[in-house]
Specification:
This protein is mainly alpha-helical and 791 residues long. Helices cover 55% and strands 5% of the residues. It comes from Streptomyces chryseus.
């Protein structure tokens, strides 16, 4: 490939194209179309690359800082590739993020709030409700760990000679051995190490990613005022939007303390309940004191979670050291005291049935349902203040997503508990005649039993949309053939193009799918909670004596639900294990994180980290540094999720740099996904503000693209933001220029379309001519502000 030389001064000065890839990631060699690439700034996690021939392409060596007149002019800018895929799919540890999926979904609910103006208290209430729901997910996870370790293993199996007899690893805890550790309280004290270790691991992972992601300083806004800069900045343009260091540290402390307190409550509840029945006044008094202390700790955790939200209007570099240090430490001390209290000798204490406190799962489920309903009420109030027809689900996308997070958490925790119970029971069925142990709480069985009815609803919904897609495909045939008037009609070719377009249009049906799924989940979950509390029996036993159809349906739902949750758990573990070993599978899972972890951790500190808090400062520093150093023109070209990163980075630029930057997006979900689901941050008003602030912007899209689409910005300047829909495929049939059938590209290979080069060239032509560069000719590339990948 020939060397690309920068243009002469009369061609407008140095020009740079900064390429940002989309979901799934790629390599710099593929992005730049050259096997020889050089990393010019960044590290192994995220970096900017150039072709080896272009490393020195924009160095200023002539008089006035311009290139020598002997260099040839060119019609293309110097290409650079920003590769960020390792932020979400780098090493094998990323596979463990699958366990954090409910936390990530809950964090998304925070950002799906409707657009509103003047409802400060309502917006704050929305954030508080989401943070409380996220806290309940942490409690649910640690409660599930307590269920497995304390109840099923230490209380039920170790307390039954039939269960522990063939398990040598439980020998020192088994009651038939009669050892020092065989007393129920001491068995529970040992088992409490497992959920406590899970809590500590979550704290460690969150602290480690916090240091790598949230602690990246964004580009300083600068001290000089700009009369053209709007006084009210969009949220993504706020200086502290991509710097959530303080809030994540505060939430991490609260959730860690909640985890330790949950373990302590499971221990104290069992021991104190026995002491109030059989022990002396001293142990009973200690039990009451510990429970009161745990209650006070829980109130303090809730207060910390509700007290402070995000600070975006300024760069908040302080930390709440008292909260981050004392709150988890105090909870750990309480846990240690509870362990000592539970391990106290109680000779007459015998473990039987389930561990006291199994109604805790019902309390958590009830609290989550109430929070989701309250969140829906608040979201509707916000939407009615500023209604927008393009907003998904009339502003209820956040509550629906929160309901999905609760469902995922319930399925994952229930699945683990049921699989462990089946494994411990051996050939028997926990809780059924012939079973060795009582098994997990009844509510978990009821929740598993509602999975088959939910699948029936989803299958009916899928059939409805399948019929609609088939009809849409048939209706498109005439329009597709009209777009290629010079080609001979081909029924097979037309059907294939129509099928791709119809399938791509299903993306716009996502609100209906999520709405029906979340509503059905809420109703079925409420029915499971009521059934478990009213009957106190598993569905099969509760339906005994009713009509044959009802009884058989209940038995089938219970058996099928248990089987489905078991298969799902096995597939989940298998997928995670494969992703840990196979980089290709890990990259596939990374697509999920590319979409879900774009947003900062505003509600759950144990969610996978926000890669944009590293990527946006990287891009902002690079664009501001290059334009400031060379005075040249820059086109940032973002594909798919890369277009979202590009837009967020342009919002963060200081005005002097933004005037020298053009935005080229292709296959962009900015309006189709982000604008509809996150209207407060990418809604119509926000995208129109971005169009006004950036010097020029063009968006390429196709009707066959299931992700990208038009941004629907009504700009005053010609030619506008959206292009006409690109032809896909480029040729209908075989031609002299296309002797082989042209592929239907859909979401990929936008750069292969001739319109891409035309639009990029036009954007460069619309940017102002080269300004006076600020860097001396002897400063090498990669130093100074342009060489910084993060603040």
């Amino acid at each position: 490939m020939p060397r690309v030389t920068p243009p002469r001064d009369d061609d407008g000065g140095p020009a740079l194209e900064l390429l940002v890839h989309g979901v799934g990631g790629t390599t710099p060699q593929e992005m730049l179309g050259d096997p020889r690439t050089v990393r010019i700034t960044g590290d192994e996690t995220a970096a900017v690359y150039r072709r080896a021939e272009d490393v020195e392409a924009d160095r200023t060596t002539g008089p006035g800082g311009q290139v020598p007149a002997g260099d040839e002019a060119r019609d293309r800018p110097v290409p650079e590739a920003y590769v960020w895929c390792n932020l979400t799919s780098g090493n094998g540890a990323r596979a463990l993020w699958l366990l954090l999926l409910p936390f990530m979904v809950a964090n998304l609910a925070h950002w799906m709030q409707p657009t509103t103006r003047g409802l400060t208290r309502t917006v704050r209430m929305y954030g508080v409700l989401v943070r409380l729901l996220a806290l309940s997910l942490t409690v649910l996870l640690i409660a599930a760990a307590c269920e497995v370790a304390l109840d099923l293993t230490a209380w039920q199996c170790a307390g039954s000679p039939r269960c522990s007899g063939d398990k040598s690893w439980l020998g020192f805890l088994s009651t038939d051995r009669g050892g020092w550790w065989s007393e129920p309280g001491r068995r529970l004290a040992v088992a409490a190490l497992v959920p406590a270790a899970v809590t500590g691991l979550l704290w460690y992972l969150s602290h480690r990613t916090w240091s790598a992601y949230e602690s990246q300083r964004p580009l300083p806004a600068g001290a000089e005022p700009d009369p053209d800069e709007p006084t009210a900045r969009p949220a993504l343009g706020m200086p502290g939007f991509w710097y959530g260091r303080r809030l994540v540290a505060r939430l991490r402390a609260a959730h860690t303390a909640a985890g330790f307190l949950t373990v302590a409550a499971a221990l104290a509840g069992a021991a104190a309940g026995h002491d109030r029945r059989a022990a002396g006044p001293l142990l009973e008094a200690i039990g009451w004191l510990l429970e009161l202390a745990l209650l006070a700790g829980a109130v303090l955790v809730v207060w910390v979670v509700c007290r402070r939200g995000r600070s975006e209007s300024r760069l908040d570099v302080t930390l709440d050291k008292a909260v981050t240090a004392l709150l988890p430490g105090s909870a750990l001390v309480l846990l240690a005291l509870t362990v000592l209290y539970a391990a106290w000798s109680r000779p007459g204490w015998v473990s039987a049935g389930r561990l006291p406190g199994d109604r805790a799962f019902g309390i958590v489920a009830l609290a989550q349902g109430g929070l989701v309903v309250a969140l829906g009420v608040v979201a509707l109030a916000m939407y009615r203040r500023v209604p927008d027809a393009r907003t998904a689900m009339r502003g209820l996308g956040g509550p629906a997503t929160a309901m999905l997070a609760c469902a995922l958490g319930g399925v994952m925790t229930g699945g683990v508990a049921q699989r462990v119970a089946d494994w411990l029971d051996g050939a028997g069925t926990p809780g059924e005649p012939g079973g060795v142990i009582a098994g997990p709480p009844v509510l978990l069985t009821w929740q598993a039993s509602v999975i088959p009815p939910l699948l029936v609803v989803l299958l009916a919904l899928g059939a409805f949309f399948a019929v609609g897609t088939w009809r849409a495909r048939r209706a498109m045939a005439g329009d597709i053939e009209a777009e290629y008037p010079d080609a001979d009609p081909d029924v097979v070719r037309t059907r294939r193009i129509a099928r791709v377009r119809a399938m791509a249009a299903l993306t716009d049906r996502a609100p209906a799918i999520l709405g029906v799924t979340s509503a059905a989940t809420l109703v079925l979950g409420a029915a499971a909670l009521v059934g478990a509390w009213v009957t106190g029996k598993v569905p099969g036993r509760a339906a005994a004596g009713t009509a044959d159809f009802v009884a058989s349906a209940a038995q089938a739902a219970q058996a099928l639900g248990s089987w489905l949750i078991g298969v799902g758990f096995i597939l989940f573990v298998t997928w995670g294990r494969r992703a840990y070993r196979d980089p290709a599978a890990r990259r596939t899972i990374g697509i999920l994180w590319d979409v879900g972890t774009f947003w900062p951790r505003a509600s759950h500190p144990f969610a996978p980290p926000c890669y944009a808090e590293r990527a946006v400062p990287d891009l902002t520093w690079r664009m501001a540094g290059w334009t400031d150093r060379t005075g040249g023109r820059l086109v940032i070209s973002g594909h798919s999720q890369g277009s979202v990163l590009a837009a967020a980075s342009v919002w963060q630029l200081p005005p002097r740099a933004r005037r020298r930057v053009a935005l080229l997006t292709h296959g962009s979900p900015l309006e189709r996904l982000y604008g509809r689901w996150f209207p407060a941050f990418f809604g119509t008003a926000c995208l129109e503000a971005l169009s006004d602030e950036v010097h020029c912007w063009r968006n390429l899209w196709r009707r066959t693209d299931p992700i990208g689409g038009p941004v629907r910005v009504k700009g005053d300047q010609a030619p506008g933001v959206d292009t006409e829909a690109l032809m896909d495929p480029l040729a209908y049939g075989r031609t002299r220029e296309q002797p082989l059938p042209a592929p239907v590209l859909g979401h990929s290979d936008y750069q292969a379309d001739p319109a891409f080069d035309r639009e990029r060239t036009a954007l460069l032509g619309r940017l102002p001519p080269c300004a006076v560069p600020r860097q001396r000719p002897d400063i090498p590339l990669g130093q100074g502000s342009s060489g910084r990948s993060s603040g």
